[in-house]
Amino acid sequence: MKNKKIVFMGTPEFSSEILEYLLENNVNIIGVFSQEDKPKGRGRKIQPTPVKLIANKFNIPVFQPKSINIGEGFQKLKDLDPDMIITVAFGKILKNQVINLPKYGCWNVHTSLLPNYRGAAPMQRAIENGESETGISIFKIVRDLDAGPIACKKNIKIDLNDNLEDVYNSLLYTSKELLLNFLSNYENIKLEYQDDEKSSYAHKISSEDLKISFKNNVFDIHNKIRAYDPYPGVKAFINGESVKIFGSFLNQDYKNIKDIPGKILSSDESGISVSCKDGYLIIKNIQFPGKKKITSTDALNGHKIKIGDIFE
């Protein structure tokens, strides 16, 4: 595929780093499609998408239509006449006229081992469910969501105390290598069709997903905290305030100490120990409303919390 014309579609930081890697390795990207720029930050200023920034850096034409499937957006894509389309977290669904346009198909880089965790939040759901592994799948886009035949996939391990950032970084590194290898060896690819009966779905994250109760199983609480760490963080109440919690860690003896669920048991340099239904976990960081994230030890020293307080 070295000389073939490729259109890249993506929006967030994850896809921008993959785009940059492809361009640095001389992949022939003739155009980039991204979602529309949106306001961000306290000033709500319009900010370019991360993918747009990389495309501009390499002087690649960028298109940000409201729709890729009809009207001007589809016409611009047709005018580029791509041999292949690669999508990475584009955030828009491709319909048949786009899927059928390039001679060598449309392909998506998905952050799970398909058919597991089809959908919007595969990284978070894999961690939240306590999976010991996940991976990258590159598949041919078809009309049904994440259901197309798989060209290649690669596993990565999820360790007990890995958080979202750890898994994200591993998957990003794997995505770059796997995608470049896919493009370099496209002619030798053999497709593997997915078994729909074995599929699972990674639902979009809701505000309810970000609430925790220390009355639950220690392992479940630990998984939920690390699934949303460092962003956006899970929420719990303490001393009448809604706080965000980060940096959950399980020691080998995490089931040897029990007390009232949510009770702060002790503190040391690693963080505060908090009791759960069937054990305890260590919480390293806490964020109070309108404040920056601080260590749990600093929260204790600043008298924001104390030993014996209870997370509700």
State the main characteristics.
312 residues; alpha/beta; six-stranded antiparallel β-sheet; single chain
Produce the secondary structure layout.
Elements: E1 6-10, H1 13-24, E2 29-33, E3 38-40, E4 45-47, H2 50-57, E5 62-63, H3 71-80, E6 84-88, H4 96-99, E7 106-110, E8 118-119, H5 122-128, E9 133-140, E10 150-157, H6 164-184, E11 201-202, H7 218-227, E12 234-238, E13 241-249, E14 264-268, E15 271-276, E16 279-287, E17 294-295, H8 296-301
Parallel strand pairs: 1-2, 1-6, 2-5, 6-7, 8-11
Antiparallel strand pairs: 3-4, 7-9, 9-10, 12-13, 13-16, 14-15, 15-16, 16-17
> How much helicity do the residues have?
25-40%
Contiguous helical run count: 8
Low-confidence stretches: none
Question: What kind of sheet is the major sheet?
Answer: 7 strands, mixed
Strand order of the largest sheet: 5-2-1-6-7-9-10
Decide which structural class fits the backbone. Answer: alpha/beta
| Cα end-to-end separation | 56 Å
Quick one: how many beta strands? Answer: 17
Residue share in β-strands: 25-35%
What is the chain-wise order of helices and strands? EHEEEHEHEHEEHEEHEHEEEEEEH
Shape: elongated
Radius of gyration: 22 Å
Average of the residue pLDDT scores: 95
Description of the molecule:
The chain is of the alpha/beta class. It is built from eight helices and 17 strands. Strands 5-2-1-6-7-9-10 form a seven-stranded mixed β-sheet. Strands 12, 13, 14, 15, 16 and 17 form a six-stranded antiparallel β-sheet that branches. A two-stranded antiparallel ribbon has the order 3-4. The longest helix has 21 residues, at 164-184. It starts with 5 loop residues before the first strand and ends in an 11-residue tail after the last helix.
